[in-house]
Amino acid sequence: MSVKQRRNVEELEPPSSELLYGLEDNPPWYLCVLLGTQHFFTMVSTTIPIPFVLASLVCLEPSDPARSYLVSTIIFVSGLITFLQSTIGVRLPIVQGGNFAYLIPTVALLSANFASCESQRAANLTAAQQQEEWQARMRAIQGNIAVSSVFQIILGFTGVIGVMLKWITPLTIIPTVSLVGLSLFDLAADRSSQHWSVSMSTTVLMVLLSQYMKDVSLSLPTGYRRGYGFIYSEVQVFKMFSIIVALLTSWLVCWVLTVTDTFPPGCPSRTDRSTLISNTPWFRIPYPGQWGMPTVTVAGVLGMMVAGLASIIESVGDYYATARICGTPAPPVHAINRGVGIEGVGVTVAGLWGSGSGTNSYSENLAAITVTRVGSRRVIQMSAMVMLVAGSVCKFGALCASIPEPIVASLYWIMFSLITSVGLSTLQFVDLNSSRNLFVLGFTLFFSLSVSKYVKANPESLKTGLPLLDQTLLVLLQTTIFLGCVLGCFLDNTIPGTKEERGLVSWRAQQGDSKSCPGYDLPYGMDAIRRRKWLRYLPFSPTFRGFHSAKYNVTVNTTTSTPVPVTTTTSTPVAETTT
């Protein structure tokens, strides 16, 4: 989540006294279901473009039921990971979903190892051969995602992420995140070109609803009281559901134009071109290895690792923003370590299940918390249950996958542009009057895009004599976020510059002070954890306060089960703990 977005959230966020339900509160079950469903639809509107892009990359036909399987799988996996993250991870009301950053190495991996979809269609393959072709692509994607997640798991559970963040500066983050959106502009243009009028009109509608009408409130029934009737409240519908409203409106218009034969036969925007819904079963539970045994390449793993690093940076920012919205102290180091580690476990799950994408936290759902003034963890856990149920109903996935592609292409314009601006918003921390910073930023962006474009157009230029090395370089040099991350990190940490000039002072100050808070403790077994002193050395343990915390003797009050830190005399500075 960008700093600009977080500041906007801070302006909107209600003080903790105005929250209807805080982090530890449990609203009534029916309210949990209602608000959890709202978070579900907010997540789905952002996640849908990912399986659409994957379906085209792996050469799936429009009427193939596997399209709905991809949609259902990513929703099901998001539910699993959201529940894990909110229960034993960072334990904040954060929704996990698909990550666009993984599309960049995916495109590079497929273009380097598989034939294009056009050549595959020209080969006149049988149905069985076509199925094997797209499943082979999916196995390559999921295998590399699953193996790359080990990197993220190690960073989180060993606490190394805290050390790495000292070298990951704003001028490393800006090109890494911005290149995710910039590298996908040709994909958005290609999909929109199928029917420009539909794509552009849907895009205009999204901008109108999300930007110009975001503060428009509608009086809707939000409850019922016996003797009084329905209770009406002012709800800012377009602020939370602008994308869904725009999609449904355009879809309805396309259906009308299809029924009246305004759209000619074969038009990409017709709603009757696909028999996907009728070909899809009602229920199907996604399972590990559903596309076959995953395959792995060195180049693919390295590319996915860079995507995972980009998602870690965004997720850590979301942890701090969510804590502020919920009126709780900033997450302590053990909660961040555990959150990053569990997110890595989630990427493993996403890879094994074959969702085709890794996962990270969704900042879009923070707006729903701000508007509803409900920051309860229980609501997000209920939302995870809704995702699991919806992911098992294949007809829902088929319904989403049957949206005409020109309509979905409008989502690409919005999502990819927002990803780019999220990266660029970090510029507010660095000194833009510095020629040093301007060089690092401009050269990193231009060089990364240029090298990626050249290697993609001239793959035969990489001939080292070692096939494995050739394949690795071919994938990595086509992955713009890898080039941007490595080059930006190297230049910013080697070219002389002050901390203020590089934006390090303000960048680290915005994270705030981390304090101990019971809300970040594990739901069970805390008494046993506090009694075992050796657990203080584990970076993901709730009793961990930093690698110098061994200088504290933690005792437990037998009546309150509260840890009491007792400082010993030592010349080594130690971290403070708050009980």
UniProtKB/TrEMBL annotation:
It comes from the Eukaryota. It comes from Cherax quadricarinatus (Australian red claw crayfish). GO terms for molecular function: transmembrane transporter activity. This is Solute carrier family 23 member 2. Keywords: Membrane, Transmembrane, Transmembrane helix. The chain crosses the membrane at residues 28-57, 69-88, 100-117, 145-165, 171-189, 240-260, 382-404, 410-430, 437-455, 475-495. Pfam families: Xan_ur_permease. GO terms for cellular component: membrane. Its main location: membrane. It is found in: Membrane. Belongs to the nucleobase:cation symporter-2 (NCS2) (TC 2.A.40) family. Coiled coil: none annotated. Signal peptide: none annotated. It is a multi-pass membrane protein.
